[in-house]
Amino acid sequence: MSAEKQQEQQQVTTTPLLAQPEKPVLSEEKKASLCSQCDEYKQWMTQYSPTVRFMFDQIKQAGGYVSPNKINCQICEDPKLGGFHPDLGIQLCANYIPDKWVLNDTLSHELIHWYDNTRFKVDWMNLKHHACSEIRAASLSGECAIMTEFWKNSGVMRIAKGHQACVKRRAALSVVGHPKCKDMEHAKEVVDEVFRSCFNDTRPFEMIYR
Ligand SMILES: [Zn+2]
Q1: Taking Cα atoms as reference points, which of 84, 86, 93, 152 lies closest to residue 118?
Q2: Which of 80, 85, 114, 126 is most buried by its number of CB atoms within 10 A?
Q3: How many angstroms separate the alpha carbon of residue 37 from the centre of ligand 1?
Q4: How far is the CA of 18 from the centre of ligand 1 (A)?
Q5: Total domains present in the chain
Q6: Domain hosting residue 157, numbered range
Q7: Which residues does the annotation mark as catalytic?
Q8: 4 lies in some domain
Q9: Residue 179, domain member (yes or no)
Q10: Which residues contact 195 (CB under 8 A, 6 or more apart)?
Q11: Residue spans of alpha helices (H) in the chain
Q12: Are the beta carbons of 67 and 93 closer than 8 angstroms?
């Protein structure tokens, strides 16, 4: 891997961690092994994950192309799972992604941003546009499926409510990182404002299937 590639990309969107952040000090050796593990998971998911393959296909149909060298495993300074930049592509944080299933959800999440960017010509500096894409990404990527499991024994309505609450929470955590967002309060406001229309827009999926 080139020195240039090892440098962390600046992202326009970032995907928050699932649990409490921790910032361990890593040796160069450990960093290299985390990146190669992440690359391995990435290869596997691009070949076998139905969601990832579906998204590649949908982006192609929308007139885009996901080049494999635009999906980069990197050591991230801030605790997060990944990010997306319309020019640089997708960042996967090798030091914060614990296993290939989380990588699958994170990659699917970033691919929804990619799809939105290709199909809807998103203005990433517009807070409402950003919030909308984060809502869709959190809802459709499967990252809130754990929450769905959690509520399963409490009835169908609770499942739906748990999923929506998770999507809102995770979208706000991403939006708060936007340069135009003042604070968490502001992030939640913007997410609430666009939630209904963006949550109900499940394109390119027919429905939320996970
Ligand atoms: Zn995102």
Answers
A1: 86
A2: 114
A3: 22
A4: 13
A5: 1
A6: 10-18+25-200
A7: 110
A8: no
A9: yes
A10: 135, 168
A11: 3-6, 28-48, 50-61, 100-119, 127-140, 145-151, 156-175, 184-200
A12: no
